[in-house]
Write a structure and sequence with these properties.
Chain lengths: 657, 657
């Protein structure tokens, strides 16, 4: 009975069973141990992407997946044989011993023996497309089921996303997807070599860390460890980033330059195109500068950390050169946060198109201008003209807190009298507002803003992107497909006024714009100690590509007194909130060098390099946007008996929050 | 008030305060923004390990940690200045502007300017030891506290392990430890390049996976996801190894050869020298052989997967060549499991010394021999003689189930009559047992064993290691410090008789010796289907170095019917236990290529390469053997309000298991 459950054979189940019926038991066993996919088979001589015209006449052994047959006349069949290197066209004479290949299910794994034959000249496609392999013999290494959930080679008929996610091992057989996975490996290799050549040391930091007060987005890991004091359950938390370990590492002096392709974990609760686990190219450097030298300032980089900028630019250039064959400029442009917000209404401006925002406050009648100034505000305008955007502007729904004014000869200098967004600001009925560049036919979009920009974008900035999107859909705007508009954004406000007092680290109206370890610009240190907190700029830098933030970093505070001042006086942390930072404060007191670093979002970068619409297409086994894994069917319930080992139990329904 | 909490200055607190008292408020702010470690400072021109005789006379700027002063006469002081590259000796004339260096606390971070001076010829130590730097000026970048928990540079007085773990950032400043961390990076780099050059594709597999029935050692991760059916909490589990994802990846055909330096997680509950998280060099290859060719068999490798063996040997050779400058042999010896157990009583034999075990059953009187045979057992002996081991044997406490017999002229052929371990086996009072090699003065250790070896070691195998340990302590045995006795162990039993019926996958008396995906040797497939389960050998291979298992792997089952047979008929899994493997079974049915792979324990390998007694010394931020992290103070309690978000609560005491 047991023997009957053995290996399956060359052709199909029915044939196999018939065959087995005719064999003696001894023969069956011999067949089982020698046959098909349960015993030795010859080694392949080549892969399916390596043969070319120069191999004409060679005897070869290939292995791979058999794709759908194409019959040519009565006697000949063609089959593509595919592996991860490419596809070779097999030629099978239907009178030959290889004829039963026709009976195989598509996606079966076979080994073929045959001879390379140069194609007729007109049918040569270059490389492996110059040749066929005329099959003399074959062996099934593993047959595929007759009914697969979908056929990965049928690119004209791609299954729905859930089905492909559930059977990811089939979807990964699609060349488009496997190319991404292979490219990811290639780029990671380039990145590591580039950093190695720059003298960076790879260090693995703990994934199992301590839960932190900013824990809203962290994953907990219950432990079986019994806490001696009170026998209560204790937890690790998965690292959200290696920020603290890497700073401690640099403080130790064990390495001068650290890097890691770090797996990070964040519970994003289904945020679009985020993954519960993601990969960062993370680095940190000791002895980075704490201000700019003349050469750096001349490039617009007026903060410290130029060493990080240079290392990152060399790294990114190496990645683009290796992956795309593209030579990026030898220095990326730099823009301050305020300039980015003023001109583009965004801290990650897409500079692939114009449509810049301008401050028209100076042109306003004095009554309006002075009233605005009293409120600490300015009036900005996005002036739209020309074929690129005017139609988009006509159809745009607009965004809240913006107003569209259609300019004609009558209202060109008087629109301000009836502007709704200016309502409540005193203006004379005969006031004149002479904006030199404004012309009849223009659309002018208006929005008010605080004088010092705040946040990540303004209403006009969001409108600008909306217009660009519509114009691209309408076909009036085409962005160059190979544009690589890298841009550094610097001099962010170090602290942000917290709207919600419950926000972490925001007891005292202020929270850190990035994280509390970011250093102020040294010119602004006196302001920080004087309490002019809103004017303090941080030594933070973001790297932006085509309007997408691909990385960020900063020079860190390395002075324990300054760090303590930020924790205690500005962020007004409670002692329990400060507790998780005590070891960092102590490390700063043990002789910490000046240091700074950066993290690049590797998934995002690969998504850009592979031109995919989602980062899921550059991850071998991604989760859905909801955080579930349809392949491994996780997360999944766990028995109460298992939970009991952690001294945990299920809450009764109704008890849950 | 705020301004008073600013940066600290050049020398010490007292001086600083005195200075500040004398300054006007404006001066204070100016000083704050320009001074010390809160503003720009010159870039270093060299690191502390790079200068040499050829730099004599150069003006240099160095940064680093200042180590204890050594005074030479009235006028000159020497200070080592250390960074992660090395240490340069500073010379300070106590009349110079650099004199206040003496007042600094040890481990403070300073920047010095000075001139390279060649040492007198007799004091040259080579490299950076050929020169001093005569300091003209210095600046404190960050002063260290007066009272550090311990002084890392004081290698004659190393603090206790808990203290060092708590202040790991100080401990990592010890050169011995930072050397390990840097070497780890170097070896990882070599490994990745070696695998890349072999055509391996690096793929990241999910860390957040599904909890499995073999979950006793896994870590759970509660999610905030609400399960639609019943609103019950659901959990991820941290990967214990990428076994299933990597097999699915190879089944997909997306890559032909996969590798990853994979972070794995296992709750070892305080097993000696294990870590909750550890790193494996993990790889898998498609189309590996399923049996040996003649060349492979001639090397003793009679199973499939020779491609994996070759790739691993090339990898290991590259690592040893790069890290140690050692050329390893071009082929590592191979030994079957049975031979290893017979000769060394271990499935990971330490072959750096002899002391082999022998089977003395054939020499026994027929009555004893036949009685043993009826019980399916053999009698083994470890015969000890000579200076190496005899004293160790005299003092060894021995291990259970062994018996020591001191051989003299009287009992040389009659010891079997009174042997306690043979008690109950019939023997005549005048029986003779003539073991040719046995001599008076020998110690003979005896133990009985099943005919086919089982498990990882035998009593005599454990005794052999005990004798070696004692002999080394006594000084009668010295193992060569540079020995690299690599050894492959193959042909393990595929299934193990389960002693404990509760053991996972052991309902039917059998469990998988390694994991249920390991393929049988093709010659043994008929036995497997016939139910002669104990005779089936697996296509599994372990790599052993000096008695330590550094890796293991196997050729996998790629036939769905065979895999199902193993799950259902041999391991007798319940449907719920089989459920987590359904996607693997389905992947095998979708056209899976023959495949096999291996994982090397990277932490263990680094521990061997760095000659450390614990893997903690090759990990930047390790946890204690109990699984706690004294630096980050994890694991830690979590509030009930946080747990409520996961619909979990604390069990009342008394409810816990």
């Amino acid at each position: 009975m047991l023997a009957g459950r053995g290996c399956r054979f060359v052709v199909r189940q029915k044939t196999e069973m018939a065959l087995r019926g005719a064999l003696s038991r001894v023969d069956q066993l011999r067949f089982l141990s020698q046959g098909a996919h349960c015993g030795p088979y010859p080694a392949r001589t080549h892969n399916c992407g390596s043969l070319s015209a120069s191999d004409d006449g060679k005897k070869v052994v290939l292995t791979g997946w058999i794709l759908p047959e194409r019959k040519a006349g009565k006697h000949v069949s063609f089959f593509p044989l595919k592996d991860s290197f490419g596809a070779t066209q097999l030629v099978v004479n239907r009178d030959s011993p290889a004829a039963p290949l026709s009976g195989l299910t598509v996606e079966s794994v076979v080994l073929v023996e045959g001879e390379v034959a140069l194609r007729p000249e007109k049918q040569r496609r270059g490389g492996v497309g110059d040749i066929d392999v005329v099959v003399s013999n074959f062996r099934v290494l593993n047959s595929a089921d007759n009914s697969l959930p979908f056929t990965p080679s049928d690119v004209s008929n791609i299954a729905n996303e859930d089905l492909r996610a559930r059977y990811r091992y089939l979807d990964l057989r699609r060349t488009a997807l496997s190319d991404n996975i292979q490219k990811r490996s290639k780029v990671a290799h380039i990145a590591r070599n580039a950093l190695h050549d720059e003298g960076f040391t790879e260090v693995e930091t703990p994934v199992l860390l301590r839960s932190s007060p900013e824990g809203a987005r962290e994953y907990l890991v219950p432990s079986r460890i019994v806490r001696a004091e009170d026998d209560s359950p204790v937890f690790y938390a998965l690292q959200q980033s290696p920020q603290q370990p890497k700073q401690l590492l640099i403080c130790s002096g064990a390495v001068d330059r650290y890097y890691q392709l770090a797996k990070c974990f964040r519970d994003e609760g289904g945020r679009k195109d985020r993954q519960p686990e993601f990969t960062q190219i993370d680095l940190e450097m000791a002895f980075v500068s704490w201000g700019a030298d003349a050469a750096s300032a001349a490039r617009g980089w007026r903060i410290g950390g130029a060493e990080v900028r240079d290392a990152i630019e060399r790294l990114v250039r190496a990645m683009w050169a290796g992956a795309e064959g593209v030579t990026l400029p030898s220095a990326f442009p730099v823009m301050t946060y305020q300039e980015a917000m003023n001109r583009f209404g965004s801290d990650k401006p897409d500079t692939r198109f114009g449509l810049e925002i301008s401050d028209i406050t100076p042109y306003l009648p004095a009554t309006q201008r002075e009233a605005l100034e009293r409120e600490g505000e300015i009036l900005q305008a996005l002036i739209v003209r020309g074929a690129d955007f005017i139609s988009a502007s006509q159809t745009a729904p607009g965004v809240p807190d913006t107003e569209r004014v259609l300019i004609d000869a009558a209202n060109r200098t008087s629109w301000q009298r009836s502007s709704s967004i200016m309502a409540g600001l005193p203006v004379a009925d005969d006031s004149v507002c002479e904006i030199p560049s404004l012309k009849p036919g223009d659309h002018m979009w208006l929005a008010r803003r605080t004088k010092l920009a705040q946040g990540g974008s303004t209403p006009l900035g969001r409108l600008r992107l909306q217009l660009s999107q519509i114009a691209q859909e309408q076909g009036s705007l085409t962005l160059p497909s190979d544009a690589c508009n890298f841009l550094w954004v610097t001099e962010f406000p170090l602290f942000t006024r917290a709207d919600d007092d419950k926000e972490f680290l925001a007891h005292g109206r202020w929270s850190s714009s990035h994280h509390p370890f970011t250093a102020p610009m040294y010119e602004d240190i006196p302001k920080m100690y004087e309490g002019r907190v809103d004017e303090v700029r941080g030594q933070h830098y973001d790297l932006v590509l085509n309007g997408c933030e691909i990385g960020g970093g900063s020079v860190r505070v390395h002075d324990a007194a300054m760090q303590d001042h930020i924790f205690t006086n500005i962020l007004q942390l409670e002692p329990t909130e400060k507790a998780p930072f005590e070891h960092l404060l102590h490390a700063l007191r043990c002789g910490a060098p000046p240091h700074g670093g950066m993290a690049l979002g590797f998934d995002r970068i690969m998504s850009i390099l592979c031109k995919t619409s989602s980062i899921r297409d550059v991850i071998a086994f991604p989760k859905t946007s909801g955080g579930t894994d349809l392949l491994f069917r996780s997360p999944a319930p766990v028995g109460e008996d298992v939970l009991r080992e952690y001294r945990l139990g299920y809450l009764q329904k109704g008890n849950s929050a």
